[in-house]
Design brief:
By secondary structure, the chain is mostly helical. It has one domain. It has a two-stranded antiparallel ribbon with strand order 1-2. α2 packs parallel to α4 and α4 packs antiparallel against α5. The longest helix has 19 residues. The protein starts with a helix and ends with a helix. The N terminus is likely disordered.
Amino acid sequence: MKIIPTTFAMLGLGALGAACSMSDEEPKPAVPAALPQVTARSAIEKVAKATCDRQEECGEIGETKRFSSRQHCLSTTREELTRDLGRDEDCKNGVSNEDLGECLTEVRDAKCEGVRSMLDSWRTSMECGSNELCMD
C-alpha cells in the first residue's frame, strides 16, 4: 500500500511549492465596478439636456414659446434642478445611477400636450426630485 503515502507526499510537496511561490507583495485591490452614483452636478446637466431635448421635440422652444431659446431652457432647468438637488444634504453623497436612468426615461417619454402632459410632468417631477435621486 505505497499508493496512499505517496499520494500524501505528492500533495504535501504541491502545497509547499504553492506556498513558496507566493510573494511578499501587497495584494492588489480589486478594480471597483462602475460607481453606483454620479455627482448632483452631473445629474443636473443630464436632466437639463434631456428636458430641453424633449421641450424642443414638443415645440416649446422659440420666440413665442415657453423658452425663447435652447440656452434659456437649459439655464432655467438647471436653476430649478439646482434649487432642488443642490439644497438637499443627501445629494452630497451623489445621485443614484439607477434612479437617474428612471428619471431620464420619464423625461424622454413625457407627452407633449393635454392632460396627459400634465400627468407626465407631475410623474417626471416625482422621479427627478431629490427625494428619489439623492443617495442617503
